[in-house]
Amino acid sequence: MKKTFLLTGGAGFIGVNLSRFLVKKGYKVIVVDDLSAGYSFDRLPSEVICHQVDIKNTEEVSKYFAGIDVVVHLAALPRVQFSIENPIASHDTNVMGTLSVLEAVRHNRVGKLVFISSSAVYGDQEQMPLSLDLPAEPKSPYALHKYFGERMMKLWSELYGINTVSLRLFNVYGPDMDPNGAYALVIGLFLRLLSEGKKLTITGDGNQTRDFIYVDDVANAIMKAALSDKVNDGQILNVGFGKEISINKLAEIMMGDKSDNIEYVAPRIEPKRTCSDISETVKILDWQPKISLLEGVKILKQKSGLG
Question: Is residue 283 part of a domain?
């Protein structure tokens, strides 16, 4: 019998795409989300059961964890810059919300908890690619919260026997990205600016690199981690494409050629380089990213009427 997945924060970008992926695979999907990010449940597949609830309300959220096989904890107040400007609000959701989810999982004897962490945990490192044996060097409250969440996963596995795994996602992109606001994902932002005929805005000098991975590849990694019996004790895995590209080069790809249609704005506090070492993930989960950045951008441009 197919397992039942519950996704916290499932109305967000990754949650919507993961829901579609799991439904196509024949799994039952339940979503809990407080909708505070301004999303609605309308864009989720009709097969998904949705509940509007704040994950910090442990008693309320726990009602929906009964009989669940896998919880994927996506709910968070994301973005590095937001956490720097709003550290208390960010902490409440990202740390206390994670604690609430862990306790709901524990008391309902949920089969497995997949915690969605972030490559931001690594901070700035000299060594590339970023491997799991590197020390965590959080440079923002958001990164610290994700690292703390990973440690909580490990400790709750040791203390209470909960099956957990943490996935450090790198720069995820794909359909239903948020293209608006001060913290918009860069590919989504570029697509919106292109559609509006505006200059592409780049923070800093644009030489910072990122490891972009298409959301369907991420969904597949999450599913495989959820179903694997090889990662149950708070292990951590990287989920990226394994290649880095500068934001300047990304802008070239998005525009089709190099031009002066770029506006540089003030830099942010963020790592200069990110590139994932996914060797352990490939080996343990028998997983491999399939959609290259060129392919992914082409898909998104076609969906946006720009291709």
Answer: no
